[in-house]
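Whether sequence alone determines local backbone shape is best considered at the level of individual chains. When preparing material for the folding task, we compiled for one chain both its residues and its backbone structure tokens. The sequence in question and its structure tokens are set out directly beneath this paragraph.
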Amino acid sequence: MEADNDTGISEFLLLGLSEEPELQNIIFGLFLCMYLITVLGNLLIILAVSSDSHLHTPMYFFLATLSFADICFTSTTIPKMLWNIQTQSQVITYAGCLTQMYFFILFGGWDDFLLTVMAYDRIVAICHPLHYTATMNPQLCGLLVLVSWVISVLNFLLQSLTVLRLSFRANVEIPHFFCEFNQVVGQACSETFLNDMVMYFGILLLGGAPLAGILYSYSKIVSSIRRISSAQGRYKAFSTCASHLSVVSLFYCTGLGVYLSSAAPQSSHSSAVASVMYTVVMPMLNPFIYSLRNRDIKRALKRITGVPVT
């Protein structure tokens, strides 16, 4: 029997990572801990940068902005998931689902562009150190963050307009723990060709263009580092990029993993599990990656937490 189209659908069902009752408490505890670590870790980075005058530089300004974006990015999905587990409900309203999906696209895209901006900051610092202060002035830094935000908003609006035209059947079940764009569009009972084209454009805009910019930046950085005569100088130059390079690798590798898992047959569950890496694990690890080998950040964090600075 063919289901009727329902353009006035009021809610969706999020099936989550597992429907096994005995696993719900474990999933709740695990994701609650990861979410709290993510929020606390990124807040500490923001406080460290804002409270220490030695960290009022372009690199740390972009890092604090990235930490803010990571908090927002994770907060679009995890609190709703925890609420559903706690209340033993799988329901999310139609408006809530679209809102979650749009803000996920918005902050995910902003994350991506901020990583590209940080790569540009590193190429100026390493390839043109004498002009770094003049080039990366506060006006340019603010403009780069603003432009990355505006592009993310425009993509967010483009995606939202195409989804609003879709109609859905009643009792839509989404095999995911949040309203992931592909999963929602895949449940539509109307034509999705336009959505697919817009989605591929978004992937090219948010994935291909920033990645090309980052690869170009690091090709210039590697070329510049190779011209440094001393081994100590090469190590010092590369160490300023190591944290950013680790985060970029984690970001794109997890994104590629999600894409490959979603392309496989019968992939709904594996795609949801893979999504955990870039929605929760990556924002949680970013503060550790940027602080563990950074003496300035560690010194500022010690001041904030009251630990004696040696």
Observations:
- Residues 1-6 have pLDDT under 50 and may be disordered.
- DSSP finds eleven helices and five strands in the chain.
